[in-house]
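Q: Structure tokens for this one, please.
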Amino acid sequence: MSDIADVDRANGAELTATDGLHYRSQPLAALLDVFALWGSEGFIGSLSRRAGVDLDTTSVIAITTLARNGAMRPSVLATHLRVGPSNVSKLSANLIERGLVEKTVDTADARASLLQLSARGHGLIEGLVGVGDQMMTEILARWTSQDQAEFARLLTLFEGDALRFAATVTAS
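A: Here is the predicted structure, written as tokens:
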């Protein structure tokens, strides 16, 4: 049992339902609700359209992955996207055809190729980042500047602790 769940239970917290799952930790349930919404095809599509981007959800996630992580082999991108090699082959061909992604030779192994964002792909990402920034401005619009600063501080702290926890889980 996690420390958060123990604290919530000790404080008399009710179970929180999230899509039929029942968590004692309200923060976990809230995060999962936000993750599910923000990862949904409809939400990603709506934000992409706000940015003037006409791509399917998987393509948006692919170019975002390349922007965050840099050039990578198609097999690594497939792992990030949780799709098979043939799907990434079709996806990357489409993104290359649109001028958003480039295929280069892997300098570590000339037999392998890397996918990376093109200049046009970087421009598209800048539009998506702008829409993401605007989204957060709208979400936090009713919050005081002090609450926004505290949220940013706590979320940054949470991110560090979550990454450390993830490292222990994946290491075992």
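A few notes: The first helix runs from residue 3 to 10. The two ends are 18 Å apart (CA to CA).
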